[in-house]
Amino acid sequence: MSATPEVSAVPHPPSQATNERRHVKPPAGEGFVWLTAMGLGVGIIMILGLLALILFKGVQTFWPRDIHVVHVAEESPFTLGGRTTFAGSIADERYKRLASPEGEEQAREYQFFVGNRDTFGLSFFYVDEDAIVSWEQPQELMQAERLSWGDAIFYPVSITKADGSVIGVEETGFPTTLRHIMKDAHERREQIREINRNEIGPISHEIVETERRIRLLKEEGATAEDPRIQSLQTGIAKLQAESRHLQEKVTQLRARNEVEQFTTRLVSGEEKTEPVSNFVKIWQPNEMGFFAKLGWFFGDFWSFISEEPREANTEGGIFPTIFGTVVLVMMMSAAVMPFGVIAAIYLREYATQGPFVQMVRISINNLAGVPSIVYGVFGLGFFVYFLGGTIDELFFPNHESAVFKSGGVLWAALTLALMTVPVVVVATEEAFAAVPAGLREASLACGASKWQTIQRVVLPAAAPGMLTGLILAIARGAGEVAPLMLVGVVKLAPSLPLDGQAPFVHFERKFMHLGFHIFDLGFQSPDSEAAKPMVFATTFLLIMLVVVLNLGAILIRERLRKKYAYGSF
Question: In 3D, which of 121, 131, 126 has the Cα closest to residue 84?
């Protein structure tokens, strides 16, 4: 049995070798690791900060804020149209620097949302804190969203019903009567919209098409006594009669909406009377508790994403913009994936590797860096003028106006597909390269052809990587605005690209887009302060839409990754 080696309890004296180890330099490049980590951390913090700001400002748009009645000093310059008393909710609070005998000093000022743009000529009003004499929060104050002139803040006075009876605010049934009259007026507005869009619109389209057929027959030599022309003219007469009947119905509904009147009084004392149908929503924020405001918040948010815009896009909802963005991204994805995958299959699997293929790869990589407006110019010249003009000459030679020789959702989707195809090609090629060679060799050894190997082995194994390219393409395509401004996006599109009218999918129609909507609100709106909350809310929704689309692609990718998981041979 061997003896156990003794362990000396005395520490070894420091030697020269130990001292040298203490001064060993860290591995080369370790400093850059810390530098890149710091850069990544700063980038994440900036992104999270930006998202938090957008979320905070966007949420403020739908949260009902308390209304204050503010009294300012008569000698102060902060009077609203000569009035020293006004009502408004605090939209912002900040400090500004003022010159004083002692130097500079800071003064607090408030930005009030005062509404009533038809009376004051503005919606926001700045007041110094020192100029405020007193303020209060009366519970009976109301705020209303109107069809025109934006929101209003007032005291309710009375309602004049259709039979001429007047109900004052002090009467017990005033709130219930107001709610019922507003509901009936809203239903009549919906009827008017449905009749104009779904009944009068198709009839007008049919009349135009029939008149075009009559003109073609006359160009072929038919006279006015031709039975075919007479039959078509009889059809036009019936359509016109039906259209007049519907227009009379619309006129009656509008006249009915003008009968019931709502009288209100501003805080400064002026009374106004206007149709109840002009009011979309009415609420009393000073009476609401937390949960009542929470319920109002979700209801207002739903109205924002489900209704159509009004007042030059500064009021109402943004449903057409969400719908147009989703349709555009779907069509872009359907166009870019087959084209990008086919190009990657040829470059990776069939092309003879050499200088020419290498040059093609370099060109594809460089295409990813081309400014997006260049793609817009190319789309306008190639897709709209060349392809659209050719289609119009071949299939729509007798139309007075251009059909496809104009911007539309199809040309916009193809332009974005062309812009994002380098991302898909590069990601797909990398996914093909990651497939183990053993899988290909095993398939070929079993007697499969090269195409069968690609189809049954390589493509399923590379599917997660291909979807990664699609996710990157969606992220870039959904937020692009510059090329779309040349190939189809508009400020307000009366019809959606998809609807119930044959042929149901209208590739030639112009459309609305969330990115362009943000640009329009932020830089084209006549009242930038009033549009600012809408900008944040729309930006928040655009980010959420991109996240949802990406999450859908990520979930599909993860399922494919689990389904086609393989081990190395």
Answer: 131
Amino acid at 43: G
Measured CA to CA, the distance from residue 149 to residue 151 in angstroms comes to 7
pLDDT of 295 reads 94
Q: What are residue 71's DSSP bridge partners? A: 85, 134
Classify residue 333 by its DSSP letter. Answer: H
Express each pLDDT in 310-359 by its tens digit: 877 778 888 999 999 989 999 999 999 999 999 999 998 888 888 888 89
Check: CB of residue 475 under 8 Å from CB of residue 550.
Answer: yes
In this prediction, residue 492 carries a pLDDT of 84
Compute the distance between CA of residue 376 and CA of residue 390 in angstroms, rounded to an integer: 19
Contact at 8 Å (CB) between 127 and 96?
A: no
State the Cα angle at 81 between 78 and 84, rounded to 5°: 50
Q: At 342, is the secondary structure helix, strand, or coil?
A: helix
Burial label for 82, CB within 10 Å (0-12, 13-18, 19+), is exposed
DSSP labels, 240-290: HHHHHHHHHHHHHHHHHHHHSEEEEE-TTS-EEEEEGGGEEEEE-GGG--H
Q: Which of 546, 364, 565 is nearest to 464 (CA)?
A: 565
Alpha carbons 438 and 458: distance in angstroms, whole number: 11
Which two three-digit tokens encode residue 266? 């501003």
**Long-range contact set of residues 488-491: C-beta below 8 Å, sequence gap at least 24:** 488/407, 488/408, 488/409, 488/411, 488/412, 489/324, 489/407, 489/412, 489/513, 489/516, 490/407, 491/312, 491/313, 491/516, 491/520, 491/524
**Given phi > 0 = left and psi -120 to 50 = alpha, else beta, which region is 164?**
left
Q: Which residues of the chain have pLDDT under 50?
A: 1-11, 568-569
What is the rounded CA–CA span in Å between residue 131 and residue 73? 6
Distance between CA atoms of 469 and 432, rounded to whole angstroms? 12
Q: What is the spatial distance between Cα 362 and Cα 347, in angstroms, rounded to a whole number? A: 12
User: Alpha helices, DSSP H only, in 346-388?
Assistant: 355-367, 372-379
What is the CB neighbour count within 10 angstroms for residue 562?
9
3-state SS record for 437-455: HHHHHHHHHCCCCHHHHHH
Residue whose structure tokens are 């007047």: 166
Burial of 439 (0-12, 13-18, 19+ CB in 10 A): middle
Q: What is the pLDDT of residue 94?
A: 85
| Residue 100 dihedral angles phi and psi, to the nearest 5° | -140, 165
In Å, what is the CA distance from 382 to each residue of 388, 389, 475?
8, 10, 25
Check residue 24 and give its pLDDT.
Answer: 60
Q: What is the pTM of this model?
A: 0.81
Residue 68's DSSP bridge partners are 88
The pLDDT score that the predictor gives to residue 3 is 43
